[in-house]
Amino acid sequence: MAKGMKTTKRVKYKTSFLDRLISVITYVVYAFFAFVCAYPFYYIFINSISANNLSERGKILFLPKEVHLNNYAQVLKIPDLFRALEVSVARTVIGTIFTVVIAAFLGYMFTRETMWKRKFWYRMVAATMYFNAGIIPWFITMNNLGLRNNFWAYIFPVAVQPFYVILCKTFVESVPKELQDAAEIDGAGTLRVFFSIIVPVIKPILATVAIFAAVAQWNSFQDTLLLVTDNKLYTLQYTLYQYLNQASSLKALVNSSSSGVNLAASLAHAQTATSIRMTVTVVVVLPIVLIYPIFQRFFTKGIMIGAVKG
């Protein structure tokens, strides 16, 4: 070892019994909450692949029994299933892009002092979070705008979301003004500043808004129920909802028929109301769950900075 070089010694801290006990309790509590959050998804999945007669009687709790994929094979046979999947994916992707871009741009514009009546327009947008005209006026408005049996009925009514605008505005306010001033001195206009300066800086909040918007679009059901009668525009959720109702009704009809006892038994072995509900739930939830790992590293930072002005 060269002369004059000092070696650094690692200082070992002794933890008391109370500290170790608190750590153990903390891990146990968090593990319990993690189990509580994850178990419902696990329970639904193992019931969807287990023997249907056992899941109907509530016998599947922790481990699958008599594993099979017949339920998923039956779901894949639903007419127009893949077309409905295309509609759901299209509305989720396009709707998310519209929502994110509009929320980011409005959030940026509401921070610019040069915007005409910006406080008034900001308050008008925020007020829509608390006041709603109701379903009937909403339906009449959508009908007058020609959005019945129209794909854009999934996009335009939810393009502007006040909560997302507020998140983006708060995040933009944390961006140093010097960045915008420097760009404007160099001759950059509003759009150039937004796309070249603001958007790269606020990526965490954009990812957060994208998660919220994508989940909302994917799970949306009421707009299809109220505005769409053309089966070419049915979403995956609505198609599976119809299948669930039809299958459950068929099951009840067979079970109530005195001449169909053997048929009911065979149907119970093949598919039951419980197995149908479990399988449909997995099919609907799984795709959107896969989005979270992609944006997870942005989520915490985005929601914290976007929600608290510091």
Describe this protein's structure.
The protein is mainly α and 310 residues long. It has two domains: 52 residues, no CATH class; 182 residues, MetI-like fold (Orthogonal Bundle), CATH 1.10.3720.10. The chain has 15 helices and no strands. Helix 1 crosses helix 14. The longest helix is centred in the N-terminal third of the chain and has 33 residues. The radius of gyration is 27 Å and the shape is flat. The C terminus is likely disordered.
Nutshell version of this structure?
With 310 residues, the chain is mainly α. The protein is built from 15 helices and no strands. The protein has two domains: 17-68, no CATH class; 75-234 and 286-307, MetI-like (MetI-like fold), CATH 1.10.3720.
| Total number of distinct structural domains | 2
| Mean pLDDT across residues | 78
The named CATH superfamily of the largest domain: MetI-like
| Overall spatial form | flat
Distance between the termini: 48 Å
Largest beta-sheet details = none
Q: Could you tell me the strand content as a percent range?
A: under 5%
Total number of helices: 15
CATH class of the largest domain: Mainly Alpha
Q: What series of H and E elements makes up the topology?
A: HHHHHHHHHHHHHHH
Give the class from helix and strand content and strand pairing: mainly alpha
Q: Classify the fold: give the CATH topology of the largest domain.
A: MetI-like fold
